Amino acid sequence: MSRREALQHAIDLWMGFWFFRPSYAHLAIMRVGVGAIVLYLFLLQTPDLEAHYAVTGWAGGESLSFLDRMAWAFSPLHWVQSTLWLYFVHGLAILSAMAFLLGLLPIVFGPLTLLFDLSYAHGNPGVVLSIDALVVLALAYLSLTPCGRTLSLRDLRPPLLPGLLHRRPGPSEWSRWSGLAMRALQIHLCILYFQSGVHLLGEDWLSGTMLAAPRVLDLETMLAQGRTLVPPDWLHLLAYVVALFHLYFGVLIWLPPFRYLVLGLAVGLHVVLGLGWQLIPFNLLMIVLNLSFLHGVHADAIMQGIAELMGLRWLPPED
């Protein structure tokens, strides 16, 4: 191979890495997972909507000067001056999240749902949680992909609704560029895991005491009574294993022999953390985002298997 051919081969590999074409089923599975979690979070806001966002609630009155001192970001909810309009805007947010979940124009309803999520976060700093950053991450990247090409209402194809409602577009550059969004999401996840691993290098975590979920296990009391379910040495070992997993996730996940082993460990870790620390939505969303590392062929096989179990016939969309 000449030097020119070697250079061209390296360029092709580099471009293929960034501009691969992900499976439509792969994108749709992630869209359904993200959409369901975002819809749940929006519905969860409903009982305390007035207390959190109304002019007479937390964000108004005496606390308004507190927000001014914080120089908190602007939110469109600041324009809403009545309770009726507040519930109207909240209803639009729920409909937008539902449309994204159902795969209706995700390139439109994805950014719109993201706008509503940021409006809630900027409207009241007291309700901002760690999951909000993941929601922004997921919606921003998935909105740049054709994630509504399958597993959507368009697949129903009702006979009385001809035309553009169920017309599948042909090959487009959008499909190629969607690989760039997915690759950026994968790299972003690797950075998040590394940052989390650095944070876990603190004394509290490595000592093993942070592994005791306050709502599930009172470690100090159980140690005093000599009835721990897990020996203290094992807790220390587990703390180091979890920290090392976060630190090296961004390296091992790119090695094909270790990819599915790492994904399996990530799913198990987030299941344990979600149940033990009662942070189920956050860890479910992390599991969904980890599916971005799933191979497209395997995602198609999973969809085919699910369809067969349900007695349905699923045909992947064609370019």
Task: Write a structural description.
The protein is mostly helical and 319 residues long. It has one domain. α2 packs across α14. It is built from 14 helices and no strands. The chain has helices at residues 3-18, 24-45, 49-53, 63-70, 83-101, 106-123, 130-142, 173-199, 203-206, 219-225, 232-252, 256-276, 280-290, 296-309.
Instruction: Report the principal-axis shape.
Output: globular
Question: Helix- and strand-based class?
Answer: mainly alpha
Biggest beta sheet attributes: none
**Mean pLDDT across all amino acids:** 79
Beta content comes to under 5%
Given as residue ranges, the uncertain stretches (5+ residues, pLDDT < 50) are 61-67, 159-173, 213-217
Number of strands: 0
Q: Provide the number of structural domains.
A: 1
Rounded to an integer in angstroms, the radius of gyration calculated over CA atoms is 23 Å
Order of helices and strands: HHHHHHHHHHHHHH
Q: Helical segment tally?
A: 14
- Helical residues, percent: 55-70%
Note the main attributes of this structure.
single chain, 319 residues, mainly alpha, 14 helices, 65% helix, globular
What's the layout of helices and strands?
Layout: H1 3-18, H2 24-45, H3 49-53, H4 63-70, H5 83-101, H6 106-123, H7 130-142, H8 173-199, H9 203-206, H10 219-225, H11 232-252, H12 256-276, H13 280-290, H14 296-309
Short description:
This protein is an all-alpha fold. The protein contains 14 helices and no strands.
